[in-house]
Structures are given as structure tokens and as C-alpha cells.
Design brief:
mainly alpha, single chain, globular, 67% helix
């Protein structure tokens, strides 16, 4: 059994001590569909947090292994995986034990022929935005922006990150203003066509 409890959300650490229940064919299909649909977005999320593409892919693969083991207990896999991937990224410098390496090798081998999670066109199309965010945002502003880009509302972000909705909204507002200002200085033509930080056309 994969012993990765140290990098999982607290509420799921105890469950790894229990025997993992094999997925039914129906649940395996649901998991596979989730894997294919979310891998690129999860990878982008970790890159927005500061990871390299390689670090992001490693963190996301680890998070999806964790999800597979906790499939029957995770109620909201999209936010759960983003938190798990962020934990893996932040702790990527911790040496993996033998069981972790073995599970990772088996997992990647099983998925090796599936290119649905490769860094292909959907992520490459985001290259400018990813680089722009990386150049101009740090800390909490960068973190909440990564969640916002993934479609989460301030209330949801607040719940996942342990903040108040007001704090999230404030950081998003300042982050957007900072990005809009930088865009106006560095790329004046696109900035005029997209409007200011409040969404108003200039």
C-alpha cells in the first residue's frame, strides 16, 4: 500500500491505513474520465503556483495516485486534487520511500501510452498567461489567482484555503489590478482591447 499520508489533506490521512477497496468497472471509468479531463488543468494549476512543467506533472501524478486510493471517500475531487497536488509540489524535495517509488513506477507504466495528460496544445495555449502571472504575482495573490483561473468562486477558494471570502476577494482584486497595470505597460495594445482591472473598456 502506498504510504503517502504525509502529503495528503489531514482528513484523508487516517484512511490510508485501511485496506483500499478496488474500483468497480463503472467507478474505474469515472476515475479514468476524471484523469483525462483534469490532468492538464491540474498541471497548469501547479505551474501557476511556481512549479516547472516537470515538477507539476510529478505532483499531479502523485495527487491522482492519492485520489485513486481515496476514490470512495473524496466528495469533491477537483478541489481535493488541487490541494493534494500543491502539497506534493511543496514537499517534492522530501525523499520518497521504496513503496512510493514502486507505486509511481507502476502508475506511470500503466498510463504511459495515454497521451491525454501530456503537456500538449491546451496547456501550451496558456503559456503567455502562465508566464505573465509568474512574472508579476507572488504569495497569496498568485495562489488565489490559480484557483480563480480554474473556475472556483471566492467562497469556494476561501473554504479550500482556510481564508475568509473577503480576504480572497481582496487578494484577487489586487492581483487583477497588478496584472492589468503590468499588461498596460508591457503590452499596451492588448491592454486597451481587454479593459482595466475592473473589466471596463478603456
Amino acid at each position: 500500500m502506498l504510504k503517502s499520508a504525509a502529503v495528503l489533506p489531514k482528513q484523508d490521512r487516517r484512511r490510508l491505513k485501511k485496506k483500499i477497496q478496488p474500483l468497480t468497472s463503472e467507478e474505474q471509468k469515472k476515475y479514468d474520465d476524471f484523469f483525462r479531463s483534469e490532468f492538464t488543468y491540474l498541471t497548469r494549476h501547479v505551474i501557476l503556483l511556481g512549479g516547472t512543467p516537470e515538477e507539476a506533472k510529478d505532483a499531479v501524478q502523485s495527487a491522482l495516485i492519492d485520489l485513486l486510493q481515496n476514490w470512495y471517500t473524496v466528495q469533491a475531487p477537483r478541489p481535493w486534487c488541487r490541494k493534494a497536488a500543491a502539497h506534493h509540489f511543496m514537499r517534492s524535495d522530501i525523499k520518497e520511500n521504496k513503496a512510493d517509488r514502486s507505486a509511481r513506477t507502476d502508475f506511470i507504466a500503466r498510463r504511459g501510452s495515454d497521451d491525454s495528460y501530456s503537456l500538449c496544445s491546451p496547456l501550451e495555449e496558456w503559456e503567455f498567461i502562465i508566464n505573465f502571472v509568474e512574472d508579476h504575482l507572488v504569495g497569496v495573490q498568485r495562489q488565489v489567482m490559480a484557483w480563480s483561473i480554474d473556475g472556483f468562486e471566492p467562497q469556494e477558494i476561501a473554504e479550500q484555503l482556510g481564508m475568509t471570502p473577503a480576504t480572497v476577494r481582496s487578494n484577487l482584486r489586487h492581483a487583477r489590478k497588478k496584472l492589468a497595470t503590468a499588461l498596460g505597460k508591457e503590452y499596451p495594445e492588448p491592454a486597451r482591447s481587454t479593459g482595466d482591472a475592473e473589466g471596463k473598456q478603456k
